[in-house]
Amino acid sequence: MHVVGEGAAEGEALLKAALGAVQGEVDSCFDALLPIPGDARARLFEAMRYAAIGGGKRVRPMLLVETAALFGVGREAAIRVGCAVEAIHVYSLIHDDLPCMDDDDLRHGKPTLHRQYDDALAVLAGDSLHALAFEILADANPIPDPFIRAELVATLATASGMNGMAGGQVMDMAAESESYDLHSITRLQQLKTGALLGAAVEMGAILGRVPPEGRSHLRAYARDIGLAFQIADDLLDVEGDETLAGKALRKDEGQGKQTFVTLMGVDGARDQARALVEQAVGHLASHGDDAATLAALARYIVERDR
Amino acid sequence: MHVVGEGAAEGEALLKAALGAVQGEVDSCFDALLPIPGDARARLFEAMRYAAIGGGKRVRPMLLVETAALFGVGREAAIRVGCAVEAIHVYSLIHDDLPCMDDDDLRHGKPTLHRQYDDALAVLAGDSLHALAFEILADANPIPDPFIRAELVATLATASGMNGMAGGQVMDMAAESESYDLHSITRLQQLKTGALLGAAVEMGAILGRVPPEGRSHLRAYARDIGLAFQIADDLLDVEGDETLAGKALRKDEGQGKQTFVTLMGVDGARDQARALVEQAVGHLASHGDDAATLAALARYIVERDR
């Protein structure tokens, strides 16, 4: 990891510790949510555990937990809501990896779910994780306020559905035949990747009882890192190491897709990603040192190797 | 349709009118929820409309609307919440029809979604309808009370996920290799079909602000019709007319599956379904004539030809 900019070294140490903690807590939370039943559903639960526990970077739960921490939210509630967002992310990866979609064999350095089990179970494990996200959010434990629960559900459902992640995925599929310009690619990626990253930040603020008008700087931060995240993904697809990434790369080129890299070039894309990150960090200024981990996370997003 | 029992003729006329009305209102609601956007997501929305508008019997919205009506709930809210339940039902049919699942070509008398479009779009249209269900429930319009919204979300998410419909589907897939007894088949069907039918009734009562302890007779009604519904489905698979049903039949036999019919015989299964329906109707006694449509719906469920 090569973190750039001011305070990079402390930022990197801070982030490593914080990410490690969140990864452990998210794994524990999924472990508790998915006890293997003593009936024929055991295989479903095993498949859900295979996909949800271990392996992920947990960027979305981290964004949520760190945003919530700015407003004094208890960690247990934030981790649990973070698991709801991560459940949506994991289900989307399972479905994206299917033969009829991206047909990927490797995810987080191990066989994709449909390779390890079968396509039918991958569809149903994804669907079950999708439902689990809303089961988590609707539970009065640990979020007793129903107004907060309902707002969390609305935010996550919108970010994941036809006007968010799934809609972006359909635009992305069309990208193989249509030739998108920079404006269209930006819009596509705001839906496909940005919506769920933005929801993670927004849901942290909702847990913190921040009214919508007090969230605009956080939305701006999320928008910038969402775009930077996708540009970094496009760069990784061109320049990354498959072993480190734990998944297949060089896919965009094979599919003849327009990406930020094809439209801006490698150097232009990297400059743009870094500029977006510095802009994102600027949006956090009012929080001072409290937002140091969110700032470090923004820098990590463009410099990561997986 | 051959309705049996007391008051059958009025029941049938009542039900026909009521089902026709709900079908029209559900179609209008989906039409309003799914305006085709002016970008590359148009194909996704068209696919969602293809699956969601027209064709369905709308048994679940009907159960919800009629239960809600017992407690004076406004029709607009009940129809909207009914569309959330139906969105889950429709998404599950889309995914069940996929080549890697049941590989069906025909649904409601027209090509299944993946035959009309492609497998990838069928996965994503299903996922988008899944998210849409929770978008509907989390919306403050037309349900201003966040406590009600959160309870609706919890009920639907549980009924659709690993401890409900999706879990039952996995047990059903295993039924081809395992040989289930009547107890296991009953448990399987309570999850696969019963959970969502039960959620529809329960959600009608939630909208009507009936506390959990006041819902036990409605839960009993729902449990009985859920089982009767599945027995009728198994009978339809053996005896039905494919043209009337609008889908492929004689599938259980080909897969060597145990069903209520293989375990009880055709006559035993029919007797059991009718007994369950009369028991279900008995649970509605305290509501008198107000529950006439729910009683007629219970009878329709076992006598339907599609």
TrEMBL record, chains A, B:
<dbReference type="InterPro" id="IPR053378">
    <property type="entry name" value="Prenyl_diphosphate_synthase"/>
</dbReference>
<dbReference type="GO" id="GO:0005737">
    <property type="term" value="C:cytoplasm"/>
</dbReference>
<dbReference type="Pfam" id="PF00348">
    <property type="entry name" value="polyprenyl_synt"/>
</dbReference>
<dbReference type="InterPro" id="IPR008949">
    <property type="entry name" value="Isoprenoid_synthase_dom_sf"/>
</dbReference>
<comment type="similarity">
    <text>Belongs to the FPP/GGPP synthase family.</text>
</comment>
<dbReference type="GO" id="GO:0004161">
    <property type="term" value="F:dimethylallyltranstransferase activity"/>
</dbReference>
<protein>
    <submittedName>
        <fullName>Dimethylallyltranstransferase</fullName>
        <ecNumber>2.5.1.1</ecNumber>
        <ecNumber>2.5.1.10</ecNumber>
    </submittedName>
</protein>
<dbReference type="GO" id="GO:0016114">
    <property type="term" value="P:terpenoid biosynthetic process"/>
</dbReference>
<dbReference type="GO" id="GO:0004337">
    <property type="term" value="F:(2E,6E)-farnesyl diphosphate synthase activity"/>
</dbReference>
<keyword id="KW-0479">Metal-binding</keyword>
<dbReference type="InterPro" id="IPR000092">
    <property type="entry name" value="Polyprenyl_synt"/>
</dbReference>
<keyword id="KW-0414">Isoprene biosynthesis</keyword>
<keyword id="KW-0460">Magnesium</keyword>
<dbReference type="InterPro" id="IPR033749">
    <property type="entry name" value="Polyprenyl_synt_CS"/>
</dbReference>
<dbReference type="GO" id="GO:0046872">
    <property type="term" value="F:metal ion binding"/>
</dbReference>
<keyword id="KW-0808">Transferase</keyword>
